[in-house]
């Protein structure tokens, strides 16, 4: 690995290889082998379009040939900002065939984030749609290109769809113009390289940190560690060649792509179906048509899915497992989701930086509904520590520290941040506050920074939010701390309501009845039509706080 502050030690690397976690195979080669083993099986479905494994392998070759014609090669970084579509998969594997590095941008990113990613990654190209969600990404790329100036790294913009009149924008279809026989290699001939000479320990992709404030940091993931990430999750989820995975959340999101997601499904020989939007109507129609067996959601989608399922107009019989992650799923919702959809619910607590925790398919209901799972690898190392870095007993809240065979040892080109983000012996300081049970399952209490200090009393926002959601009129809630002369900070609850909004007194009485301490009752209730989200689908509390300060 390069461009990180720390790497795995030789001893650790040897241990992970000996355990079979790191298999020494690049993603370009993995796709080639999948095509050889599952050639005629359907690998990918996008609307009316579908590709077998052999056809997906050929598409990767064709795209690699076009990218190679642009001068893109091993180690080059390419920012990929595409919505859910098959082209994301083609580009991703095409880059792997060259040993190049996709940088996973979110469709909602705009000038500030995209310019930052290009600068930090020194990206040589960006891949964007023409328009998505009524936004013109070509105009965005004009701005990014202009701001980097003549000495910038960016040389190419590839557009999926209409590139417009700018001769500097390359249409995606032009990348596929060369016949496969003249590309980097073909599945038929077996000529050329499967991975551009990449090493399994090379950085294979750059993910983005999922924080709710500031610009995202880049997370380097190697071929070895990221393949194990997907494979370990696939094993826990019992994926096989009959699995049909529905990508509902943004495809570039780590949860959707490799937990087990797209990669885990393809590595198991299953089928990936791409959903163009996360609405239950779109998703349920695809479940019916394609026989979907597995999908992944974030908590804000859950009530919409359960409400739609209650209509009784959909056949969801093929769907057996629904993962929920990205934020803590309130226990009441966890208990209703399974019966509402007729599925097994799996809670997921993980991070793009590495560690993934899943509830198991045979866990008792109380563990599934009240915890966020346990680590997927026997070599995941987890510490729960106090503010002084001392381990705390099971059941006591503390910060989660972790290291292991798929957890990073340093952010990309962030030496200063790495000095505080990792312990001297390589543990990643997650910033998550958890309680660990004797079973190894973790209960997410909140974030170190998602805590309100009200006159010396510490309030964990996630605890209050979960209790607010038990009020029958409240469908979504976010608790935010804002400066206050008397208390230092006061708490404001932003709530989305079905029908009339409850008043502050009604909310206080409800929370008291639920057993919540009086000081945790929100000082103010603000009704909003919806909660703003970050590009990775988490509630944007910074935006809510700024809105309060502007009032």
In short:
This protein has 18 helices and 27 strands. It is an alpha/beta fold. The chain folds into three domains: 26-40 and 51-199, Rossmann fold; 225-447, Rossmann fold (3-Layer(aba) Sandwich); 451-550, GMP Synthetase, Chain A, domain 3 (2-Layer Sandwich).
Find the count of extended strands (DSSP E, 2+ residues): 27
Count of DSSP helices?
18
Please state the structural category: alpha/beta
Give the CA-based shape: globular
Helix content: 25-40%
Main sheet properties:
9 strands, mixed
Description:
There is one protein chain. The protein has a 9-stranded mixed sheet, with helices on both faces. Helix 2 packs antiparallel against helix 3, helix 5 packs across helix 6 (137-148) and helix 8 (223-236) crosses helix 10. The protein has 551 residues and is an alpha/beta fold. The N and C termini lie far apart (48 Å). Strand 16 and strand 17 form a beta hairpin. It has 3 domains: 26-40 and 51-199, 3-Layer(aba) Sandwich (Rossmann fold); 225-447, ANL, N-terminal domain (Rossmann fold, 3-Layer(aba) Sandwich), CATH 3.40.50; 451-550, ANL, C-terminal domain (GMP Synthetase, Chain A, domain 3, 2-Layer Sandwich), CATH 3.30.300. It is built from 18 helices and 27 strands. Helices cover 32% and strands 25% of the residues. Residues 1-5 and 182-192 have low confidence and may be disordered. The longest helix is centred in the N-terminal third of the chain and has 17 residues, at 53-69. The chain is globular. Residues 463-538 form the AMP-binding enzyme C-terminal domain. Residues 189-199 have a biased composition (Gly residues).
